[in-house]
Structure to design on (286 residues):
């Protein structure tokens, strides 16, 4: 309001800079907080590494011990990934799985692009699967289906697509049972409520990553001493474990499979969330 073009450009510059820093810091925090180290035993000759394997860092500290960080991509002897090589035992001892792209924060689109690029660079692209995908795209286009939406639904996991289908089903029910038209678009109560759910999920997910990072036994070596002293780092692993403390029968664990009661409780919570979305989506904006 009343800003000159110069001030507008400065505002855009500041906004883009702050957004870039915030997004970069968030991704770095996610990658660090969700990383996982798994023990492996793979003998490797560091002086004659296999094809596709290279040394990424000569020194990588993990649990007070120095390793050699090795990257494997397209090798026939070592699976793709990051590994920690122990010079004393002359073998790979630990597999380092960064947070982004791992089990807790999968990146299916990035993994798909990495698979294609890796196959092209190493001349090991599965052309049969590629040609099969081309044939499927031609078939769905002939049937009048959008090939991009079909492809996205194909490479995403069923857990992701099932929830997206549930959201679309709720929207269809809202439009079928209400007298409102479809012209509201992004300003509809359902869209606003869904945006709030997405924002809340992202905030609490980031909060969980921060807590997980502050519970890392090695966090004190990566932050200033005064910061670790003030926050009493590292935090106990059970500091925020309210579920196992108060509702052990309903709290899931990564060590044991889900029970019927836990699965039923999760399903009921999902139905409550879906019902709340349906109710708020049918309300009128004031």
């Amino acid at each position: 309001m009343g800003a000159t073009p110069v001030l507008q450009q400065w505002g855009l510059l500041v906004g883009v800079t702050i957004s870039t820093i915030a997004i970069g810091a968030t991704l770095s925090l996610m990658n660090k907080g969700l990383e996982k180290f798994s023990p492996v035993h793979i003998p490797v000759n560091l002086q004659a590494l296999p094809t596709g394997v290279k040394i990424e860092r000569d020194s990588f500290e993990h649990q007070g011990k120095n390793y050699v960080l090795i990257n494997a991509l397209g090798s026939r002897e070592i699976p793709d990934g990051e590994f920690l090589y122990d010079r004393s035992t002359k073998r790979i001892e630990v597999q380092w799985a960064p947070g982004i792209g791992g089990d807790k924060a999968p990146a299916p689109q990035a993994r798909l692009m990495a698979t294609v690029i890796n196959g092209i660079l190493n001349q090991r692209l599965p052309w049969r699967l590629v040609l099969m995908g081309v044939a499927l795209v031609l078939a769905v286009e002939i049937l009048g289906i959008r090939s991009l939406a079909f492809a996205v639904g194909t490479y995403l996991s069923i857990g992701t697509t099932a929830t997206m289908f549930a959201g679309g089903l709720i929207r269809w029910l809202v439009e079928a049972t209400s007298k409102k038209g479809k012209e509201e678009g992004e300003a509809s109560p359902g869209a606003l409520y869904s945006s709030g759910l997405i924002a809340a999920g992202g905030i609490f997910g980031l909060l969980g990553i921060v807590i997980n990072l502050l519970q890392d036994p090695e966090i004190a070596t990566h932050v200033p001493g005064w910061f670790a002293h003030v926050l009493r780092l590292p935090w106990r692993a059970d500091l925020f474990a309210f579920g196992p403390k108060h509702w052990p029968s309903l709290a899931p664990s990564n060590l044991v499979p889900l029970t019927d009661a836990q699965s039923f409780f999760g399903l009921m919570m999902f139905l409550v969330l879906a019902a709340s979305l349906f109710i708020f989506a049918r309300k009128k904006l004031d």
User: Anything to note?
Assistant: The first strand starts at residue 36 and ends at 43. Residues 181-281 form one domain.
